[in-house]
Amino acid sequence: MEVNVGVAVLLLGAHDGEIGVSPALAPALGRLGVTHVQFVSDERGFGVIVEGWAFDPDSAGEVADLLGRATQRVLRPLLDVAISDEPGGPVHA
Fold first, then answer.
1. What is the CB neighbour count within 10 angstroms for residue 55?
2. Taking the CB of residue 37, how many other CB atoms lie within 10 A of it?
3. CA–CA separation, 35 vs 88, rounded Å?
4. CA 24, CA 75: separation in Å to the nearest integer?
5. Between the CA atoms of 15, 19, 24 and 29, what dihedral angle is there, to the nearest 10 degrees?
6. What is the largest CA-CA distance in the chain?
7. How far apart are CA 73 and CA 12, in angstroms?
8. Label partner for 14 (CA 20 to 30 A): which of 2, 70, 79, 92?
9. CA 51 to CA 8: how far, in whole Å?
10. Calpha distance 82→93 (Å, rounded)
């Protein structure tokens, strides 16, 4: 049985400089199955990549609510590829 990590990318628009996960917020994210959070940005706005073995991407809107943000879009993985640099090594898709 293959077990996949739940992953979602939340596009959240502009940010005000206050980005992070407070110690008080961490348990609530954990209850949603989130074990890793990464913040990304460019000149147009920012996003949050959330993942976890027990994370259901359908609850991505709840993550945005916990962060105090309105979700503009939620992106989900289409393809996950592992690359090996060993000759003849496996490629998993």
1. 22
2. 17
3. 33
4. 26
5. 80
6. 48
7. 7
8. 79
9. 7
10. 7
Position 9 scores a pLDDT of: 93
pLDDT in tens, the chain (93 residues): 556 789 999 998 877 667 778 888 999 999 999 999 999 988 888 899 999 999 999 998 899 888 887 777 888 888 888 888 877 666 665
Q: Which residue has the tokens 């959070």?
A: 37
CATH number, span 6-75: 3.30.70
Closest CA to 36 of 54, 58, 12: 54
Find the length of the chain.
93
> Domain spans of the chain?
6-75
Say which amino acid occupies 64. Answer: A
